[in-house]
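Batch job 17 of 40 flagged for manual review because the log was empty.
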Amino acid sequence: MKHIFLVFIFTCTLFAGVIKTPVLSVDEEKQLATIEIANINMGITGFLVHRVSKNNSTILRSLEVVSFDKETQIATLKMADFAQLRQNSLPLGKWKPTVGDIAILAFGYSRALLVAPTEDIYYRITSAAEQVQWVHPDLFATILSFSGHPTPLAEDFTKMSIGAAAGLIFFYLDKKLYTVDAKSLKVINISVAPLEQEGAQLPFYSRVEEIEANWFGEGSDELESYEPYYFELLIENNPENAQLLEFYNDFKSEQTDD
């Protein structure tokens, strides 16, 4: 058990630092940029900062790591509109991304939400990583109630990430801990954590007794099963992750055998 938590603490430390590095190239037509970096995981998100004067800068784009070449140590970043701080009452600048702009990645990775099936597992994991600023699941449950989603959708996790300034989500599924970027929902690490689990609180452990539901629409139904739903949510956002798919198939096989 001690080994499990040491692995988990190492994982949290690995993703705790913000990455700041200049942009090497920009392709406006394809909305791509490149940076040089020793190592980086796919799916890590961030934003592009452009200096407009000596003392002023602005955020131009959202960024997501979409490829990395280990030999050249070049990472390719997908750019998209940055809407998190949008203010419709203010004019938009006409600045464009340029070489030398600063890519800031893994921002907010020191804050995280843990989606866990039981209170015991939640407290075992969070108490093992006190260096992480944990967003309490009660807050996420409240966000779901405002949205009328007793079944969490990808957009709900994005909303939580922006509102709580949390960069990571940890999902505990079938004795493994999945480290996921909160905005892209890309799996960036998987740790083995064989904790004893008795049942599952739906949609996840929190102290909120009931999450309000909309009359209709996606997310308005009560979640019926814990692991299958979150596995499918991750697979939907990580269709090329062979390890994730393998673990899901193993889980389904175990359920069939039982």
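Reviewer: the log was empty due to a logging misconfiguration, but the result itself is present. The helical segments are 2-14, 119-128, 137-147, 154-164, 226-237, 242-257. Unflagging and moving on to job 18.
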